[in-house]
């Protein structure tokens, strides 16, 4: 049930980096049952997919241990490369399966986290059920926009690299020129789409409208979005590492030669708890950055204050 106005999650004015970071952490402290509850469920799904994929690989008789790398000073033969690829294939399969599940879960829960934090900004709280009801009609748009937000920067890099390779007949340096252009285009797309999910969710906008609005909000704040966005990713990863490291160390101490049931379980537990904290944190961080951009470009602080007092 939606509760009445409470203390602000953030000051309703232009935000600094420290205010965005503290607001993201405060959201976890103020609404642990909702945010960490959704995060725990998400982490469980991701961890379970990793356990199942790992178990299937181990049961098939394949090993997940890292192969011995060739000596860099020696000439690497085609056979050594083939053996290395074959040895890494099981680990890559597990990684790809886990990455796909992570992408889907993160896309689905992003809307829920955003609704929870969006309401908290104006001093209101909603529970898991309410956040799901608000997110469900937007789900396909959120997933579609998440896919585009991944494909555009990735495609830009590969297209730039492809152009560079295609022009190597003219000059070999063009490979690096093409890659540089691709990276620049990828960064531009990443910045422009960084707040696309909260734009779609909180404004309940159409797919293309959210796409354009996200670029519009970031347009005159390019370096701000770049710097703060990178800081958000670094901080979320650091939090995840701190939470999961004890479990990872325990797993490594019990699996020096080859993964065992207990080591796989402990490693997955660490990942689950890491995702439990990381996913809601980065969603809250992105939502607060979106709010800051709208305050700067559209001066919505007054509207937020009115909504808080309703």
Structural commentary:
The protein has 310 residues and is mainly α. The protein has one domain (17-137, 191-308). It has 11 helices and no strands. It starts with 16 loop residues before the first helix and ends with a helix. The model is unreliable at 1-6 (pLDDT under 50).
Question: What would a concise description of this structure say?
Answer:
With about 300 residues, this protein is mostly helical. The protein has helices spanning about 15-30, 30-60, 80-120, 130-135, 140-165, 175-190, 195-205, 205-220, 220-255, 260-300, 300-310.
Shape: globular
Count of beta strands: 0
SSE order: HHHHHHHHHHH
**Major β-sheet annotation:** none
User: Roughly what percent helix?
Assistant: over 70%
Span between N and C termini?
Answer: 16 Å
Counting copies of identical and different chains, the oligomeric state is single chain
Low-confidence stretches: 1-6
What is Rg? Answer: 22 Å
Structural class: mainly alpha
Helix count equals 11
Q: Total domains, how many?
A: 1
How confident overall, as mean pLDDT?
84
How much β-strand is present in the residues?
under 5%
């Amino acid at each position: 049930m939606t509760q009445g106005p409470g203390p602000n999650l953030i000051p309703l004015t232009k935000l600094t980096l420290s205010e965005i970071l503290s607001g993201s952490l405060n959201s976890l402290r103020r609404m642990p049952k909702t945010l960490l509850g959704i995060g725990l469920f998400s982490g469980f799904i991701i961890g379970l997919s990793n356990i199942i994929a790992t178990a299937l690989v181990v049961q098939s008789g394949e090993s997940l241990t890292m192969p011995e790398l060739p000596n860099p000073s020696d000439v690497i033969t085609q056979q050594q490369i083939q053996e290395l690829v074959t040895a890494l294939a099981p680990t890559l399969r597990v990684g790809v399966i886990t990455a796909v599940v992570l992408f889907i879960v993160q896309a689905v829960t992003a809307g829920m986290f955003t609704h929870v934090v969006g309401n908290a900004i104006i001093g209101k709280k909603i529970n898991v059920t309410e956040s799901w009801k608000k997110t469900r009609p937007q789900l396909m748009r959120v997933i579609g926009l998440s896919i585009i937000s991944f494909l555009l920067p990735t495609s830009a890099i590969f297209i730039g690299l492809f152009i560079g390779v295609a022009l190597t007949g003219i000059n070999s340096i063009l490979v690096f020129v093409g890659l540089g252009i691709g990276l620049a285009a990828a960064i531009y797309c990443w910045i422009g789409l960084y707040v696309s999910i909260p734009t779609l969710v909180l404004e309940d906008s159409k797919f293309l409208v959210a796409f354009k609005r996200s670029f519009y909000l970031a347009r005159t704040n390019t370096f701000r979005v770049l710097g703060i966005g990178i800081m958000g990713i670094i901080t979320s990863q650091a939090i995840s590492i701190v939470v999961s490291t004890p479990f990872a160390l325990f797993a490594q101490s019990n699996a020096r030669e080859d993964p065992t049931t207990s080591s796989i379980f402990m490693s997955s537990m660490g990942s689950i708890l890491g995702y439990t904290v990381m996913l809601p944190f980065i969603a809250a961080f992105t939502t607060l950055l979106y709010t800051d951009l709208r305050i700067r470009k559209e001066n919505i602080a007054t509207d937020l204050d009115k909504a808080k007092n309703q």
